[in-house]
């Protein structure tokens, strides 16, 4: 199997799949809340390196059916380079069903409709997109673009037949901007629904705390105040109340950062999920202990 350049990050759902590092680090690496690749310089791995890893993995696990392309930014690769990686995977894994990777709204929006359709034909059929928020104000503060860019990215993937697993960060607006954060996020999802939607709760590496707080204090100097568990549950409740997607969305809040794990399909299971959430708010359902939460 390949020898990985650590740290190696991947979505929880990719834990049992083959992971292949097509790039190292993240080409943007400037989101104010993210510390995943702060100690790793971005690099495009040469094709011969990647091909060698593919061949090595195929020898050890020839019946692998799903592959995740790491690190954080494989979709930034030029089309010919990325297509060559996908072609090699298809050649070496006879039963390959799905290739997936992280995506940024920028690199999804930069690929043409024809490029994305071509990638889909080569079995890149799922991308993980951090929406984080639907609020332009919050997205600007965390350096993640704007809601229009997020909408363009979602539409581009959908038009190509590529499924999107999107994440939203509860607590991202703190106690001051939480309603705007949730209302605008629900509005975005209701306009362009991803296939999967998950919530995480805000967690900051100590090295990012100062810069994050500074971004949220500007321009009025008001300090960022974190949401407590009650605030996080209130955000989750408002999000579920407001979500009315135009097609079914598989919803999860089972990431380890969440105080409460929920699972269902929206809008069908909204009432069931809200009942569980209300029980937690009333103290009738236990929250995940703080010591068990993390990233």
Count of distinct strands: 10
Rg, Å, rounded? 19 Å
Sheet bearing the most strands, described?
8 strands, mixed
Please write the CATH class name of the largest domain.
Answer: Alpha Beta
Topology order in helix (H) and strand (E) letters: EEEHEHEHHEHHEHEHHEEH
Please state the structural category: alpha/beta
- If helices are DSSP runs of H or I spanning 4 or more residues, what is the number of helices? 10
Number of domains: 2
Report the sheet-strand fraction.
15-25%
The fold-level CATH name of the largest domain is: Transcription Regulator spoIIAA
Q: Which strand order do you get reading across the main beta sheet?
A: 1-4-5-6-7-8-9-10
By CATH, the architecture of the largest domain is named 2-Layer Sandwich
Q: In which range does the helix fraction lie?
A: 40-55%
The average pLDDT score comes to: 95
Shape: globular
The residue ranges in which pLDDT falls below 50 over 5 or more consecutive positions are: none
Q: In angstroms, what separates the terminal alpha carbons? A: 25 Å
What attributes does this structure have?
Transcription Regulator spoIIAA, eight-stranded mixed sheet, alpha/beta, globular, two-stranded antiparallel sheet, 295 residues, 10 strands
